[in-house]
Specification:
Strand content: 25-35%
Number of strands: 6
Strand order of the largest sheet: 1-4-5-6
Distance between the termini: 36 Å
Structural class: alpha+beta
Number of helices: 1
Order of helices and strands: EEEEHEE
Shape: elongated
Length: 94
Amino acid sequence: MVVRHTVDGFVPGGDAASLNISKEKAEAKRVEGTSLHVISFGTKVPQDSILEIATISKARENQLNWDEKAPQLFLSQTYNFYVGLHDRGFFSAV
């Protein structure tokens, strides 16, 4: 099974490291006793600092699909949810 989870960002602070760019080739490490190989990357940040961002038209502000968003936020334990409101692509509030 491959488990993958992405978020839109995180609230700065804590022990998060800055992004480093390297020309080194990433090496997959074999998990002993299995045929699994893992390439570790990214930065670990506290779970309560991750955030999800959504956008919606100001005209449809009250039509945000909470039946879709709520389970996603609950299961990923994403505590911070930001909604950007736009008017024909121009953002005025988050």
